[in-house]
Specification:
The chain is an all-alpha fold. The chain is built from 5 helices and no strands. The chain has one domain: Ferritin (Up-down Bundle). The protein binds MU-OXO-diiron (FEO).
Amino acid sequence: MISDKMQKALNDQINAELFSSYLYLSMAAYFEAENWSGFAAWMKVQSGEEYGHAMKFFKYINDVDGKVTLAAIEKPKAEWKSPQEAFEEAHKHELFITDCINKLVTLAIQENDYATNLMLNYFVNEQVEEVANAVQIANKFKHIGDNKSSLFFLDRELGMRVK
Ligand code: FEO
């Protein structure tokens, strides 16, 4: 069993994860249009990962006999000034998602909901990795600056991501 409050918060997180998927897909579309195929490929993999996160919450709510309720997904931004700006926004977004996960953990503790707290452990760890990846890429962009050939090299490197 799960409390109504916890169920609502987990449903909200499904929406946040689906928005993340949508945001990264929008970044992929922007990169495709700008012919940055490697950055686009990286974002498509990331978008799929976010869909997977949403589905983990979806499954968990059903596993504890709750009810999944889907809400409208906010329209994502479609344009960025540069690849660097898009990846910096991705970093900022991951910090926001980490905050959402931390708030869910706080709520699970307040509600004495041990099962949900345990399930959220996966996401606490996952966010450490998500933020670390985003920081690493954002820092690479900072090092590169306006160096076009390094930017092409990074595009190729990120395009090799498969999962
Ligand atoms: Fe599902 Fe990137 O957090």
